[in-house]
User: Fold this.
Amino acid sequence: MSRCIILQPIAQAGVSILRQAGLEPRVAGPEHSLEARLPALLSEAEVVVTRNLGFRSTWMDMAPRLRVIAVHGTGTNAIDMDHATSLGIQVVNTAGANAPYVAEQVFALLLGLLKKVPQGDAALRRGDYDFRYTASPADLRGHRLGLWGTGHVARHVARIAIAFGMEVHAWSRHPLPEEMRALGVQEAADLDTLCAKADILSLHSSPRADGLVIDARRLALLGANGVLVNTARGALVDEVALASALENGAIAGAAIDTFQHEPPSREAPLVTAPNTILAPHLGGASLGALEATGRTVARVALDALAFEAGAALCNPEVLAHARGRTPTS
Assistant:
């Protein structure tokens, strides 16, 4: 029986899929004492499931039988991909599994910010019913939404935005998908053009080797009435520049679910900035998201064991020398 080590908890449905397939799933236990227990845990492991903890190269070296690192989520930035490939270890992820739920988080944060939901709740609780006359909440209808990225989450966000009566523009390093074009999404020429066009800019990209970020200059393009939403990656935003823009009124607000350093300190620039609504990376943490991602990570791990992971395989070059592969497999 193959052993599967689950470094961070996943939905029970995913554990059940692994067990029913003949694996021996074992949850690693508390993260604060994980390092000391890893050598014993990894010595027989063929599959590792990880979330934001990633998987270090030194841990790979402790696992001579490891064939698959399965990422519960999309990001592989916390995994030494080159080292995994050199060792013949397949790395798979669950891109798109939680996309509908992350899209919901985009609008939960955005509506909370624009409609001043936290302030309205606080006003009512302190007896200030007249807050409704001075709040001046903003709307989505009739405004332009800019999407940096055109992947799974962005496509869901575009559909919801159009249902709200928004005009949607998008830019990515890849051509605009036909699915989005059919919805009426307009393709921006570049990121600067997108920032200048958008009333609300929502980020759905991943950190790039060229260091492209939303910095002070692009925030200025967004303008004093602009709003930034980030449910993607903290590294996409210059947080100091964003905090300064919020303090100075260079943009109107920000809705942030991901940070450069997680968890952020209580003194972090965005934690103390005005006109924000913040969340502790909840986009993929809803019950539906966890269930969908747990099931998917189990399935792609099993597919990888059979060398059939397809698009979920993040290092396809490994297949030529993948661990466990025979000349006929």
